Amino acid sequence: MDAVDALNEIAFWLERSAAPTFKVQAFRKAAGVIADLETEDLAERARDGRLKRTKGIGDTTFQVIRQAVDGAVPDYLDKLRQGRAKPLAAGGNGLRAQLRGDLHCHSNWSDGGSPIDLMADAARYLGREYLALTDHSPNLKIANGLSAERLSDQLEAVAAVNAAHARQDCAEFRLLSGIEVDILENGELDQDPDMLERLDVVVASVHSKLRSDRRTMTERMLSGIRDPHTNVLGHCTGRLLQGSRGTRPESEFDAERVFAACAEAGVAVEINSRPERQDPPDNLMRLALDAGCLFSIDSDAHAPGQLDFLQYGAERAERNGVPAERIITTWPLERLLEWLRSRE
Question: Sign of torsion, CA 172 173 178 179?
């Protein structure tokens, strides 16, 4: 098999199982090292040992490449396929099968680990019909948030990915332009309104001052929801249950008012599928359901393999009785786009 594909698929399975970043990056880096080598040149370098002495190629990645250029499925990859190609979540199978896309992911333009094209390729591999690229906005400096100028450049990159897919006869997949924009302390969205107008999807989230008092946080969230550019309210409580960043309690806000505003404005409540978030909690998910809200089951992926985290969100949504017709990521692309444009 193709050696670059083998290395990237190994990284995918490792990301999917939340393996340590350094381990994943060893395979991603090796794939980048050999990406521009001609097939015969790569095979010759692998067989005569030169490749093993190349910076960025370790013992394990060398063995993967050597087996791939010799026409075999590398042992390392075969083992991962056998051991990890099973559902991540025990339930939610019926709803998971109805999911068509994902409206929240990050690339290496902000705090993700992979280029845009790899994120798109992984979404296609998983059978998605669409994926929204939603890198962070400028206020989130720790995540390398995108200025208006960088976001404008990214729109060109998104167009290039879609053009490449069209040339490859992959018209059934669409990469949507988007942003995860901060709801600032004053309730405004952290991006130029003219830039927000150019995007397909706007996910609005609170990332700072998460321990603000209930009244302050409620008014802040209501302002963000009522902005006509907002399509999805991202990880509404901001909680963290596990992971390298530790734990964090839920933000305090008037959930009844917030979800009523989402229902009135036509803003979907995100069911964030990251294992460390599981946001909103089950009781708030049911409250949003009773309020008449729409939902968006999203991965919030920061690496290709994490796009499969949608399984966790589907399990939670199904367990809490959220019907598929209320989940916008089960909708066909044209219906979704029509809905997204309805707030303009």
Answer: positive
Which amino acid type is present at position 246? Answer: G
For residue 338, pLDDT over 70 is answered with yes
d(CA 64, CA 6): 7
Across all residues in the chain, what is the average pLDDT?
Answer: 95
* Amino acid residing at 139: N
User: What's the chain's length in residues?
Assistant: 344
Q: Is 298 helix (H, G, I), strand (E, B) or coil?
A: strand
Q: Is the dihedral of CA 149, 103, 328, 214 positive or negative?
A: negative
Q: What is the pLDDT of residues 72-87, one digit of tens each?
A: 999 999 999 987 668 8
* Whole-number pLDDT of residue 98: 97
What is the average pLDDT across 50-62?
96
| Structure-token pair, residue 54 | 């190349």
Mean pLDDT (whole number) for 279-284 = 98
CA distances from 28 to 5, 10, 25, 118, 202 (A): 10, 9, 5, 10, 29
Q: Give yes or no for a contact between 139 and 184, defined as CB atoms under 8 angstroms apart.
A: yes
Number of H helices, E strands in the chain: 14, 7
For 213, other C-beta atoms within 10 Å of its C-beta total 10
Look up the CATH architecture of domain 93-341: Alpha-Beta Barrel (3.20)
